[in-house]
Amino acid sequence: MYSDPIADYLTRIRNAVRANHRVVEIPASNLKKNITKILFEQGYILSYKFDDSSVQGTIKIALKYNKDTKEPVIKKLQRISTPGLRKYASSDDLPRILNGLGIAIVSTSHGVMTSKQAKRDNVGGEVLCYVY
Asked: What is the pLDDT of residue 2?
């Protein structure tokens, strides 16, 4: 049993990238599914598949690597808000990652989205993680 499922999700992806795996399998939840969709839309992963055959279900993520250099597209995954110390930001205070080259994933009252979308929609929320 783990107390922070989002940190476990990010760690599984981080470990798979470091080991040069092509696919990683992660236990599913609605929040993890939303984060996976954002990673796909932003171009950080190649594809994903939700498998609901078991009770909890799993997420299969195909990781993305550069064709020429074989380097992973995801350089860093960093958990920001933890169960012990939640980090919230208003729409004016949402972070920019690497001057706009990375993304911050934010859980808002309008759903899970990137910080750019949250600024555009003028909503704040809990800053879950940084990806670049």
From this structure: 78
Distances (CA, A) of 131 to 2, 14, 52: 22, 11, 27
Virtual torsion, Cα 71, 15, 29, 93, nearest 10 deg:
-70
Give the global pTM. 0.95
- Where helices occur in the chain by DSSP H, the ranges are 5-18, 30-41, 115-121
Task: Supply the pLDDT for residue 1.
Answer: 54
DSSP3 helix / strand / coil % (the chain, rounded to 5): 25, 30, 40
Helix, strand, or coil here: 98?
A: helix
72 forms beta bridges with 65
The one-letter amino acid at 90: S
Mean residue pLDDT across the chain:
96
